Amino acid sequence: MRFFLLLLVTFSLLTGCNSSAMKATLPTYDHFLIFAHRGASGYAPENTMASFKLANELGADYIEIDLQMTKDGHLVALHDDSVDRTTNGKGKVFLYTLEELKQLDAGSWFNEKFPKRAKVEYEGLTIPTLREIFEEFGHDVNYYIEMKNPEQYKQMEKTLVLLLEEFGFLEENESDGKVIISSFSERSLRIMYALEPSLPLVKLQTSYEVKKSTKRTFNKISKYAVAVGPSYKFVNENYVKNAIETGLQVHPYTVDDPSAIDHLEEWGVTGIFTNYIDIYERNVHFLTECVYSLKPFKNEVVFFLCGFKSSI
Ligand code: G3P
Ligand code: CA
């Protein structure tokens, strides 16, 4: 069985497609989606349970989780492939066992870096495993899972599929967008597609890839993915139009500037990744404050400063 699976994956990678498989689809959503980037990471330490819980409380449509893998094969939520930036430890994740990783404090850095948003309960938070996240939220939330650095981790895709299966996310009625899988790695997404074609996949794109994307690029991506995730700063109307015409949704990251939402929505983007789930309210709040503070100036000045520039 294992040998057969390996053959299938190898064949799919070589041919670039899985001809017998039905590609997943995403639902047509009735509103603009908010993907909670690393959880509610503007307000709580990214990729921690506190951040995911807050994102859920604030009404995010999806909780975005970055995945790395430990030395002993556990999937954990962490953005970087090293623990240096967001814990009190040092070194690559793949050099840690889960037990060792669990000794690290993944919350105090946030309190030090953002004293105005610091909370005592963030001290000593641990890096959660994907299993713990599934145990906490079950099927009550939608998950947007990014496979980070999959080339560094042996069988990351297979491990993820097995965990999704164990928690019942691969059953027929759950293959409609409850779990979305993304990656910057085309190779890894193709492996996922060969393993489990019912999972909706998203090809993340670097700014360089966004700038050189044509309809041909989107056609190639649409063979295995249902959406593209571009860096929003390089997205224009034509990019969105071409992607949509190819049958792909567009999910730009990471939009923390409220003034950027309106045109993205107009162009037909499905939703955005943001660190600030309340970005709409921030938009209204920002505009009100901005207009009020510039009252003595001419309308053109107010429009220019409040309409085109904002800060969180
Ligand atoms: O998944 C979209 C976005 O999260 C990709 O960028 O570096 O924040 O994981 P990054
Ligand atoms: Ca991510």
TrEMBL record:
UniProt entry keywords in alphabetical sequence: Signal
InterPro entries attached here? GP_PDE_dom, PLC-like_Pdiesterase_TIM-brl
- The yes or no answer to whether the keyword Zinc is present is no
Q: Which CDD domains match?
A: GDPD_SaGlpQ_like
Signal sequence extent:
1-23
Domain spans labelled GP-PDE: 32-284
Q: Which PANTHER family match?
A: GLYCEROPHOSPHODIESTER PHOSPHODIESTERASE, GLYCEROPHOSPHORYL DIESTER PHOSPHODIESTERASE
Q: What is this protein called in UniProt?
A: Glycerophosphodiester phosphodiesterase
Q: Which organism is it from?
A: Pallidibacillus thermolactis
